[in-house]
């Protein structure tokens, strides 16, 4: 009985995940005439990429993809790097006032992003970094690093002291110990953080909506939202925009799925 319940639960999960994506894909390759004839649930009489091509050209989607990839990739790399450095000091270095630092990072994770918009906007305009991808990288790196530091600090606090003692006996300094011992052993957890940081930043809409006003700096979610608000798109073009918007994140997740699964199951310390 339990086996059938598990299979039923897996089937429900698959349907909830796959069905919306399949529906978007089917409608994205329909013509407006097919959509009017068979509706959103019917299969197209023939496959057409006209809606995808029209949206790609109208949104300058190639440039938008590059913008999102640069911002999300930079944030993922910098966020993991700063999280590791901070967690190394707090988890292994045991700096004075460690608990207060961890409490500060915890509070930073609990603060709503909406409350940060005005001071961040004021600072960005004062230092002439408004409407800049660099501003997005700095803001999101700080946000993601707060979460990464809090998570990694608890992990590195349980780091095997035998490995640290062996590195010290070999004459390794703190930097060499971090690069040669701590980082390789923590690679699964770092890979998980990298994946989450990339996807979270890629899907972010609210902050780029405030800070990126130029078309040349738009990210994927921002381009989708603004384009659908500015133009009267038919249902097939809307499906095409949704498909192009989620497909890169899905592909990225599939590429790093094994790394993500290994990091979740294995943990950071072996």
Stretches where pLDDT is under 50 for at least 5 consecutive residues are: none
Q: How large is the count of helical segments?
A: 14
Using only C-alpha atoms, the radius of gyration works out to 23 Å
Mean pLDDT: 81
- The dominant shape is globular
Helical percent range? over 70%
Coarse structural class: mainly alpha
Largest sheet: none
Question: In whole angstroms, how far apart are the ends?
Answer: 36 Å
Write the H/E string, N to C.
HHHHHHHHHHHHHH
**Count of DSSP strands:** 0
Task: Assess the beta-strand content as a share of residues.
Answer: under 5%
Report on the architecture of this protein.
The chain has 270 residues and is mainly alpha-helical. It has 14 helices and no strands. The protein has helices at 2-28, 32-38, 50-58, 61-92, 98-110, 117-126, 133-156, 161-169, 174-185, 187-203, 206-211, 220-230, 235-255, 257-266. The model has no long low-confidence stretch (mean pLDDT 81).
Gist?
The chain is mainly α. The chain has 14 helices and no strands. 31% of the residues are buried.
What is the secondary structure topology, with strand pairs?
Blueprint: H1 2-28, H2 32-38, H3 50-58, H4 61-92, H5 98-110, H6 117-126, H7 133-156, H8 161-169, H9 174-185, H10 187-203, H11 206-211, H12 220-230, H13 235-255, H14 257-266
Helix pairs in contact: 1-13, 3-13, 4-7, 4-10, 5-7, 7-10, 10-14, 12-13, 13-14
Descriptive labels:
mainly alpha
